[in-house]
């Protein structure tokens, strides 16, 4: 087992690529789309995985990995149980941070913005595009609640799978999605000697301000 001393000595150089101001597009979504495309083409494990950070009523942050399901100029979309911890915290404070950790490319993207509930039409459309087993799982799990054993989940799943064997799985009233607006988005590219490239896009009413940040 690695000791504290062992991990303190773990390091490597980041030398795959660089990011220059003159190469940045005016619209950050263009660069995000390129980086995501490259992550998908390289067959990274879960290239759409992002860490969603929220804050509770006492100011305590929490994080979890979810999958990005859509993005456009309006923001980044994910789906969840509306009784989950993240959904409850977003209801209290809708300021959210997203992090895409594409380690293989020595890249990170951080998005900051406000999370808003998706419309019922958007939720229904996506819910019925999911595999049937995933639809059933949405009914089974009261996300973030305490359960006595895994067998409770498995038993309920089998029961509902039999119930919905022939028919359509209805959308649970407690299941929905959020769109996180893009107020700021930072692109991080690792560089040698820890002199990483960081560029921050900040939205104004008419355009995006772009600033290089010290690493």
TrEMBL record:
HAMAP family: PdxH (MF_01629). PANTHER family: PYRIDOXINE-5'-PHOSPHATE OXIDASE, PYRIDOXINE-5-PHOSPHATE OXIDASE. Binds 1 FMN per subunit. InterPro entries: Pyridox_Oxase, Pyridox_Oxase_CS, Pyridox_Oxase_N, Pyridoxamine_oxidase_dimer_C, Split_barrel_FMN-bd. SUPFAM superfamilies: FMN-binding split barrel. Pfam families: PNP_phzG_C, PNPOx_N. Its cofactor is FMN. NCBIfam families: pdxH (TIGR00558), PRK05679.1 (NF004231). It comes from Leminorella richardii. Coiled coil: none annotated. Keywords: Flavoprotein, FMN, Oxidoreductase, Pyridoxine biosynthesis. Residues 175-215 form the Pyridoxine 5'-phosphate oxidase dimerisation C-terminal domain. GO terms for molecular function: FMN binding; pyridoxamine phosphate oxidase activity. Substrate binds at residues 11-14, 69, 126, 130, 134, 194-196. This is Pyridoxine/pyridoxamine 5'-phosphate oxidase. The lineage of its organism: Bacteria, Pseudomonadati, Pseudomonadota, Gammaproteobacteria, Enterobacterales. The keyword Cell inner membrane does not apply. Homodimer. It is an enzyme of class 1 (oxidoreductase). Pathway: Cofactor metabolism; pyridoxal 5'-phosphate salvage; pyridoxal 5'-phosphate from pyridoxine 5'-phosphate: step 1/1; Cofactor metabolism; pyridoxal 5'-phosphate salvage; pyridoxal 5'-phosphate from pyridoxamine 5'-phosphate: step 1/1. Catalyzes the oxidation of either pyridoxine 5'-phosphate (PNP) or pyridoxamine 5'-phosphate (PMP) into pyridoxal 5'-phosphate (PLP). The keyword Oxidoreductase applies.
């Amino acid at each position: 087992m690695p000791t504290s001393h062992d991990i303190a000595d773990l390091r490597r150089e980041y030398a795959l690529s660089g990011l220059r101001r003159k190469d940045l597009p005016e619209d950050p979504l263009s660069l995000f789309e390129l980086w995501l495309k490259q992550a998908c083409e390289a067959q990274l494990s879960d290239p759409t995985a992002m860490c969603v950070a929220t804050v509770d009523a006492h100011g305590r942050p929490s994080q979890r990995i979810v999958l990005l399901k859509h993005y456009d100029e309006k923001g980044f979309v994910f789906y969840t149980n509306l009784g989950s911890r993240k959904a409850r915290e977003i209801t209290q404070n809708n300021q959210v941070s997203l992090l895409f950790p594409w380690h293989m490319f020595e890249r990170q993207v951080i998005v900051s913005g406000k999370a808003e509930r998706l419309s019922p039409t958007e939720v229904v459309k996506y819910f019925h595009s999911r595999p049937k087993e995933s639809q059933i799982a949405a009914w089974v799990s009261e996300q973030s609640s305490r359960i006595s054993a895994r067998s409770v989940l498995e038993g309920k799943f089998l029961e509902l799978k039999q119930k919905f064997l022939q028919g359509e799985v209805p959308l649970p009233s407690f299941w929905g999605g959020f769109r996180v607006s893009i107020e700021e988005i930072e692109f991080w590219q690792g560089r040698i000697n820890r002199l990483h490239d960081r560029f921050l896009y900040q939205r104004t009413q008419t355009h995006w301000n772009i600033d290089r940040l010290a690493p």
